[in-house]
């Protein structure tokens, strides 16, 4: 299995929080895998494997038919291990990217008898950092790698929660809606929102 650059690379948070946040991405290689007649079938099978392991979030099944990528997010490393074990057994030949804490991922990759092809590390943020929203807000916005979850939306839902107009769970779901990729971790968002409304 290979690891490619991913938009799930820049998630923020402390180690304990990130131990419940593992996006997995399966990607057809443009011009090679996606031209093979069975490539789409293999990608759809990976989507089924993801779904069988009860992800926190997943790319919509409607998008599976057209997207060269299928992504899902899991909230524990043991489930990630089970997913990788199943993918190894089926040997579908599609590139797999796992994002999360490097030490945790290294351990499960070794445990299932795989080796890491590439490791990408986020070097952090450069520039006028004083213009960024607070860290807790960034922990939510960075769960959408295409930055479709805005800080303004988070502030809006925090106020709605405080005013008793929406539950924390519904607010987390609403925040996940713009992230069509399926890598927004609604379970983790509930935890962060709970901290923000205290």
Q: Any idea what the CATH superfamily of the largest domain is called?
A: ACT-like. Chain A, domain 2
Shape: globular
Unreliable stretches covering 5 or more consecutive residues: none
Helical residue percent band: 40-55%
Arithmetic mean of pLDDT: 91
Provide the CATH architecture of the largest domain: 2-Layer Sandwich
Based on DSSP secondary structure assignment, what is the total number of beta strands?
4
**CATH fold topology of the largest domain:** Alpha-Beta Plaits
Tally of separate domains: 2
Strand order of the largest sheet: 2-3-1-4
Mind summarizing the main beta sheet?
4 strands, antiparallel
List SSEs in N-to-C order.
Answer: HEHEHEHEHHHHH
The percentage of residues in β strands lies in 5-15%
- Count the DSSP helices: 9
Counting helices, strands and paired strands, the structural category is: alpha+beta
Radius of gyration: 17 Å
Distance between the termini: 43 Å
Structure commentary:
The protein has helices spanning 15-18, 39-52, 61-64, 77-90, 102-111, 135-141, 151-162, 168-176, 186-196, and strands at residues 22-27, 57-58, 69-74, 95-98. The longest helix has 14 residues, at 39-52. With 198 residues, the chain is α+β, with helices and mostly antiparallel strands. The protein is globular, with a radius of gyration of 17 Å. Strands 2-3-1-4 form a four-stranded antiparallel β-sheet.
């Amino acid at each position: 299995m290979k690891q490619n650059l991913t938009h799930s690379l820049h998630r923020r948070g402390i180690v304990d929080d990130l131990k419940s946040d593992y996006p997995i991405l399966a990607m057809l290689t443009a011009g090679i895998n996606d031209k093979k007649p069975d490539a789409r079938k293999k990608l759809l099978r990976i989507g089924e494997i993801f779904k069988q392991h009860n992800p926190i979030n997943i790319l919509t099944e409607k998008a599976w038919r057209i997207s060269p990528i299928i992504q899902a997010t899991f909230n524990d490393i043991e489930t990630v291990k089970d997913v990788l074990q199943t993918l190894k057994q089926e040997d579908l030949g599609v590139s797999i990217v796992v994002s999360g804490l490097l030490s945790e991922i290294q351990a499960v990759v070794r445990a299932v008898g795989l080796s890491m092809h590439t490791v990408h590390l986020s070097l952090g943020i450069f520039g006028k950092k004083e213009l960024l929203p607070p860290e807790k807000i960034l922990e939510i916005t960075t769960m959408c790698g295409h930055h479709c979850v805005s800080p303004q939306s988070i502030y809006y839902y925090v106020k709605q929660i405080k005013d008793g107009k929406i539950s924390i769970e519904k607010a987390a779901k609403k925040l996940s809606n713009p992230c069509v990729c399926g890598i927004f971790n609604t379970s983790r968002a509930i935890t962060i929102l709970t901290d923000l409304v205290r």
